[in-house]
Structures are given as C-alpha cells and as structure tokens.
Amino acid sequence: xxxxxxxxEAIGNQIPPLIALIVLWMLLWGExxxxxxxxxxxxxIVVTVAFYLVPVQLSGRVHPLxxxxxxxxxxxxxxxxxxxxxxxxxxxxxxxxxxxLAIRLHTRSDLILTWTAVATSIVPGSIVxxxxxxxxxxxxxxxxxxxxxxxxxxxxxxxxxxxRIVRAFxxxxxxxxxxxxxxxxxxxxxxxxxxxxxxx
Length: 200
What we know:
mainly alpha; three-stranded antiparallel β-sheet
C-alpha cells in the first residue's frame, strides 16, 4: 500500500515527461496558440497515463571529479576498443571466438544499471543483449573471447565501469553497496528485508 508521500512523488515524477511532451507537440505544430497548448496538455496526460513507465529515481548526487574520470576513461575505452576491433577486421587467419556473458552488477539502481548497460554497449566489441532487472545481471555478446582469462578480464572491465558510474552519479546507498556493506542485488536485498521483518 502506497503512502500519500509516495503517491505525490509518483505524480511529481510524471511532470517532466508531461512537460517534454507538451514542448514536443508545440514544436511539431511550429506555432504557439492557447488551443495548441490545451490540446498538447490533454494529449500529454493521455500518453503519460496510457503508457505509464516506472519512474527512474535520480540520486540527486553528482561528483564532478569522478564524472570527469568516468567520461575520460569511457573515451579511452572506445578508442582502444575501436583499434582492437579494426585489427580483428583485417587480421589474417582470424579465428573468431565470441561469447555471451552474464555479468552480475552490484547496483540495485535502475539508473546505474541503465548507465552501465549503455556505457558498455557503446564500446566497440560488446553489446548488451538482455537485462535481468531483478537480479541486476547484464547479458552481453562479446567479441574475441578465447579463454577464461579473457572472460574474467572483460567482467572486471564492466564492474569497473559500474564502479566509476556509481562514484560519479550514484546515491550514498549505491556507494555503500559497492563497498560490500549492502546486498549486491535486488533478490539478496529482498531476502534481507524479509529476514529483518521475520526477526522483528
């Protein structure tokens, strides 16, 4: 059962998409009029209600230094991976050995999960093919995996990316979870909550 505060937060989370839809409608019509504004408001309400999305909770925290570190490292990873993939394309006697990897993240945040998936996918050589939101697992198709060492190295790269994102944009709870203080995923957290309720 939701509390009045949670209901207000849910309504508040729908306001930015509603405003964005109104602005988009006005831009598509190319002119401002009160009738267009009214129609845009009605259409926006219908769309946000009919196609309701679970709101993503923003952490409200941005660490400038770690943000710079994240983006600089992301650019370096893209450049390095682009060179590697280019070499694979022209390499003589290429023996391909690709893999589908399941990598469990530490985060429970949908925002961090999405950021990590996007940051991993835009680096050439890997792409997210599925996400298990409940368990915080990314399933990725990865090029050039020839050994267990290659797989472990890539897994560490993804977790390092997650850690940099958490340091840059994550909440205090996300940071604590990365340190191992809190449960690593939703299922573990749910079990921990159930255990606490059972003990109380």
